[in-house]
Amino acid sequence: MFSTTTLKVIRTLGLTAYAKRLKKLLVRLGLWPKDGFGYRHRKLAYGMLAGRGLEIGALHCPAAVPSTCKVEYCDAHSRQESASLFPEIESALLVDVDYIVNLDQDRLLEKVKPPYDFVIINHVIEHVANPISVLEQLFAVVRVGGLVIISAPDKEYTFDKPRGLTGFSHLLEEYRQGVRSVGDDHYLDFIRHTAPDIFNSGDSSLLETTLKSVRERREHAHVWNSESFLAFLRQSIAFLGIDATFEFVSSADTNNIECFVVLKKVLE
Predict the structure, then answer these.
(1) What is the pTM of this model?
(2) Which of 142, 156, 203, 227 has its CA 20 to 30 A from that of 251?
């Protein structure tokens, strides 16, 4: 169970009531459609899918893949654990998890049952400690000719807007060092920009409580916009020596929320 203090922190961070107020403001300003974005761009890409796939971090929003596809679900937490960690999500909507995998600590290849025809990972890469390593693992479990569907929120359309972009040199250093956990410097940066009143309050107890909540919820560690995320993918693929092609790209300048990409694995 969450304590009253923790729930107050979550609300203060803008993950429930604040988010709703913000959405109403964006609708009023014409920056958010009244009926929601609907991720219409994703539907076009999902139409390319067939066979057996793996979705990582679906939570309550599993990909709407064709009915002929068989999808297995992977997450860092069980359905029950996620219900406790994310009280703002209606628990009945959470998917049943087939594989418990911590992408920071575990090797995906050792925890799931490859090869897959496709792998989907939406709005997860920004939470992990070592994004280049995760990208490497995704291509390790998909077959030749298979698809990797990956997306990240564009900072200009989220609460990350005040934060600086994560440079590729930073990510490369994390990969070379074999980083396996998100450092508190990432989470403090998150708090500094998304909850400045807490960060600048001078209340060390409140800051520690907030930091604990942010760690448990694995908030955004890395930040991209659409341009920098595409650059991250291209640079990572080149660095890792992965032979892949870009089959579909949708950027936030057209979908108003994320950079969404479909990559095809060409060779082993």
Answers:
(1) 0.85
(2) 142
